Amino acid sequence: MSWTRRFPAVPAALLAALLALLTLLVAAPPAGAHEERPVVFPDGSGSVPQYRSDEPDLIVCKTDRAAFERRTSAFPDELRQRNLALYERCEKSGYRHLQEAVDAVDRPGMNIAILPGLYEEEPSLPKPTGECASLTAPNSSLGYQILTYEQQTACRHNQNLVAILGKTDLQIEGTGASRLDVVIDAKYQKLNGIRADKSNGIYFRNFTAQRTTFNSLYVLAGDGFVIDDVLTRWNDEYGFLTFASDHGLYKNCESYGNGDSGIYPGSASNINEGRGYDVPRYSIEITGCRSHHNMVGYSGTAGDSVWVHDNEFDQNMGGASMDSAFPGHPGLPQNHAKFERNLIHDNNADYYHYVADGTCAKPPAERGYEQGVVCPQISMPPGTGIITAGGNWNLYENNWVYGHERAAFFLSAVPAFIRGEESWDKQTDTSHHNRYAANVLGKDKSGASRPNGADVWWDGQGRGNCWNPGPDGSTPGTLPQCGDRRGSVSGASARLVGEPVKLAQLLVCADYNVQARKLPAGCDWYGARGLERVETQIALAVAAVLLLVGGLLWWRRLRTSRLGTAAFLLGLAGLALDVAGSTMSLVATPVPALGLLCLGLWWTGTGIALHPTRPWLGRLSLLLGALTLLDAFDKAVLMIPWIPLSPAWVRALVAVLWVLWAAAATARPAAPAATPPDDGTLAPPDDPAPVPAGPAPADGAA
Predict the structure, then answer these.
(1) 210 alpha-carbon distance from chain centroid
(2) The dihedral formed by the CA atoms of 74, 79, 82 and 84, expressed in degrees to the nearest 10
(3) Which among 97, 119, 106 has a CA at the least distance from the CA of 57?
């Protein structure tokens, strides 16, 4: 009888494991981020616009004078008098809606002043009619049409409350004492609050934009923009979205209550592609801003050449994120972001329960955004400071990162086919040369202890990445260290593929869909704990197979061997530690490495014990033991340089072969007992020990 018939569970488990691995390797999560018409970067001939303090050319106000005077009554006297004078002028020759003033702009360099009030832009709100109601255009994965620039011009309010199309050097400023005195409200009836498209040199200042089904303030294909002292809030996707733009500046801004990020400089002009750390300039600068209570404070698919300094990202699910995970974004893969002197802390919010309980399936106006509801639009690990999913040549220096339940820094690679590129030579082109140096981890600015769950979570792929040491540990247990000079790395590695179990976790966790209310089972990002987690399930499945095959091997072949028995006991301890370690992903712990150490000693001892009777299985066991000990060293002591794959990959392949071979060795039926001879001697055992050769008997001897 064959071993597969005697032990049918073993090949079934192996086949399931192989099929699962193949599925993970070929599957990719569906795209679901910002989708826009094909655009190209500006030619870079523009510049960052300067604020103009001149008197406005055009004024926007409402007609209720009593309400206006109530709004301005607490202003400082000089500011109040200026607003009253502007109101007198506006009553005579001003506009009641911002769109009307934008339409009246007839030359570059004009200023629009918006007086304190609530602007709902009533003429822009009705649904499209006539030809605008039947435009032919592709649909995004979120359901909105991806319109051409010409269609946007012809039907400017299909998607936009205020459309600024093709204007140059336009300045729009609220005249209140704070940005909350001028509020532009889309009432969840438009995709965008304000859209500035192909408008170079635009300057926004001192107002609030809110409540859209995508983003409040959108700058597209612009060369030169400033967002100064503006608040955005309560949007399905983004507060601020700038895309395919150059010479941009965000300063003193604030954003909260957004389903993706508060600040999103997506596809910033890719001016530094092909360079190292030293660059002549950055395409976008972000400074003095606070982004909080969003899914993520800052994000940037293809957020290239962005300088982010002296900001605060807190109380989000994640502090900041860069990625190369979505197609259709020029400038991929992401590169050359620079983060310094930012305060990134306490990003531990978890909004996925609003998806699970159906809150996010309601119409946007009924979800309760104003009461703190956020509907996360994509998958991400809550409790993380800075996430880099497929980025290169990024600098993270002199930041304070503390108070995160998961990790301060999260780095993983993204294969090129995820962004739609099939060329084999590009599949490992992300997660290289990211430098995390001189950051203060686990402490706030006062020096008080505010630990992170771990300093670093890294899938292990990439070359030239380095970190400065911190107090909260990492996974893997040791990391390449940054030298004083940028580009100087000690203990560097150059892996083509990340750790297998971490890749399995990433692919399982990425299968998220807010529209379908689909939260992937098995992922602790969405609340899975204990036996629910995919890492623990993998560890348990592996432990079950090894316990079955290893136990049978010991019982049939090694139970009389002291070495074999001791090795098997070490194996039991190793399997238990491996399962226990799989439940501790949010804690820096040596348990997984200790588990590998015990397993390595198990296979080593088993190999020595088997060698006299089954030399080839013994040699395979010794090889597997060596690979397992090497894997433990790689994870806990020093990442082995110069090898393209982690020892875990080779170990897994050899382990599959060992399981098959060991199962076959244990499955051979025992020989039937022989009838004792008449002289009372016993029949030979099933597996007799080899008899030492003695001198040959003399001729004729009995």
Answers:
(1) 26
(2) 0
(3) 106
Q: Which of 541, 543, 530, 533 is nearest to 575 (CA)?
A: 543
Which whole-number Å values give the CA distances from 480 to 43, 201, 407, 437, in the listed order?
A: 38, 43, 17, 11
- Alpha carbon distances (Å) from 244 to 41, 225, 525: 5, 12, 31
3-state secondary structure of 636: helix
Q: What pLDDT score does 33 carry? A: 67
pLDDT at 363: 96
Instruction: Determine which helix (DSSP H) or strand (DSSP E) holds 623, and give its type and residue range.
Output: helix 615-636
Cβ neighbour number for residue 509 with a 10 Å cutoff: 21
pTM (2 d.p.): 0.90
Backbone angles phi, psi at 592, to 5 degrees: -60, -40
Question: 323 with 391: CB under 8 angstroms?
Answer: yes
* Inter-residue contact 377 to 236 (CB < 8 Å): yes
CA distances from 60 to 14, 88, 530, 535 (A): 71, 11, 58, 58
pLDDT of residue 491: 87
CB of 390 within 8 A of CB of 323? Answer: yes
Mind listing the pLDDT tens digit for each residue in 121-138? 999 999 999 999 999 999
Classify residue 689 by its DSSP letter. P
Residue with tokens 């099933």: 686
What are the E-state strand segments in 303-445?
Answer: 306-309, 312-314, 318-323, 334-335, 338-340, 343-345, 384-389, 391-392, 395-397, 400-402, 407-412, 435-437, 440-441
- List the chain residues with pLDDT less than 50: 1-31, 670-702
